[in-house]
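Hello,

Our lab assistant flagged a job as stuck in the queue for most of the afternoon. It eventually completed. Since we weren't sure the result was trustworthy after the delay, we are filing this so someone can double-check. Below is the sequence as submitted and the structure that was eventually returned. Let us know if re-running is recommended.
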Amino acid sequence: MSPSVRCFFRRLAAKAALTMACLVGMSLWADEATDSQLIDPLQPIENPTGPLATDLDFSRFNKKEGFFDPREHGEVLHFFDRFLAAQGISNEGTAADLHRLHELIEADVKLTRKIEKRVDDQYDALDKTIEKIEEAFEDQRYGKEEDEKGTTAPDLDRLFELRKEIKPLKDERKRLRTFLDQEEPALDRLESALRQPENARQRIEACGFAVRTLYSLFSDRVMADHDDKDFAVGLRSGLQYANCFLGRPEINSVPYYGPFERQRSLGSWKAKQEATNLCDPAQPGRFLTAKELAKLSPVAVGDLDLSPDNPMWHTRAHMETVHPDTWSEIENYIADRVTEDLMDKKKFRKAHPEFRYDLHAARRVLFWDGVKTSATSPKIETVDALGQEWKMKWADEAVVEPFGNRLRVALGAKFCDLTYVDVGGASHLLILPGKEDRQLHPGDAMPLTVEELITVMEESTYHFNVRPFIRDSGTITAGNADTILRSLPAEGKKGYRKQDLIGRTWVSFKESMVEAKHDVLNLGGPAALFCDLTYGDRALRQAFLFSLWMEDKDNKEANFRTAWLPDFAGKPSQYIEYFHDPGFSFGGLARSAELNNLKVGDRPGGFLWLNTEKTKILGSSFQIYRPGVWSDATY
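-- returned structure --
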């Protein structure tokens, strides 16, 4: 074992030991005590009086930190299967499941809408006052435009007071809206299935989408309560990583069938090990039963396909006949919806009647908005000149993510994050805040100079030295603004126009990556990878092979995401699951983007190879997190 590998495991074991020491005396289970005022998810939920978003006791879904089974690392909700059982919901997608899910989600949507309206009214009243004060500061800073008639005074103390007052309302409103945005389309799909009781595939999928939507919402809340950070590793589990590393060929193994056995019928026992969501490409309207699979050979089962409505992958027929350009579809989808939002504003529409939002033009010049603290690699939050959010990132993962995302959609994934890496003179231009921004946002990291930017990143949770990535920097002046800001969109909002940026610091980079974080996308939380619901899903089993090939070591649920997208890719509404943040991929044990360290070939120690008995296919990739469904992959 190399020194770097030994160092990696020493750090891991030390962290695990420290975590264990801190947890001595704590109870094994999180469900020993609960707040009596909250809804217990591990008991039947009957006649709730408040929304799940605010009244559910999310602490009941998890074991105490440090006491996880090694196989549970990467899972967000340890007790989600117990939640389903308590509500009388199975993983089969039966008619009874359909009615129970509809009852549960319909009741929650009604309660959430009612509370959200009250909270939204309170929020809007405060928000309008805050906007007027902020506009007064903008007028003071940049001057009034001809049609602006604001009379509010720029009162800083009042602004801070109102921001403090609106914060809890903003948080509650966001929680409620997040649940509504995900539950409403899930409810629509359940109601559609209820109207067509004879359509078994539609019923099974509607139930599956609804259950996965609940998992995503609940896990998102649990992660938020945990500051979006990974759960602590216990000593037992930390030490288990060494066993996982050394035993990875056997852990990664799947059964191998010889030429003769591939042509034999599976039989009832092996058929039960196959995925449950398989369709005959000639009859994609229904799933095959275990009894039907038992009569097929492994080769015939391999020729079966996913449902056209599978949330993760396109069908083989769709890829071979349509050849979708999914990346461009996502770009156009975001551009269309941002354009629509901006053109809804009468003033903007009048000033720019021919406007269309362009992601590539918008990302060329970005403005500092804060440093992200809940991630595992160095990144900051930025906005473009039209107020749309982007995440900026550096270091080795910045190259891997765009490559990994494009590769996945090229091979059939239905969705991905839009990430772009640029180098040299084409890299993104970052505009640092002005003095007034620091005044309006006390307590937030607001670097005004390059040296302050370097200090902020060094003192952040990443302790990251951004200096080697900086290509050039300077101050925007009246004389150089046209050159420095040549890529700045002319339609920019007040505060993001050339004349507004005189005196500000600009920074360019040798290499930088940005990710589109536009809120026009109805994105959910982590996707389920460990609970019983996932075990019969071929799409997730396919993800296993893809992960082995990419040597993606970071397969935790937080790195798989969900979404409900209206009017996307020719469908009125669809539930999506997708790979998120493949940055820790493509070679290297403790780093990514080490292509020369990728395992290749079909000999022992390579990518995949046969054991000496020719009964198993082995693989050498190491995965920190390994979803349980991947242990069920078949030949």
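-- support follow-up --
The delay was a queue issue, not a problem with the job. The result is valid. The two ends are 32 Å apart (CA to CA). The longest strand covers residues 560-568.
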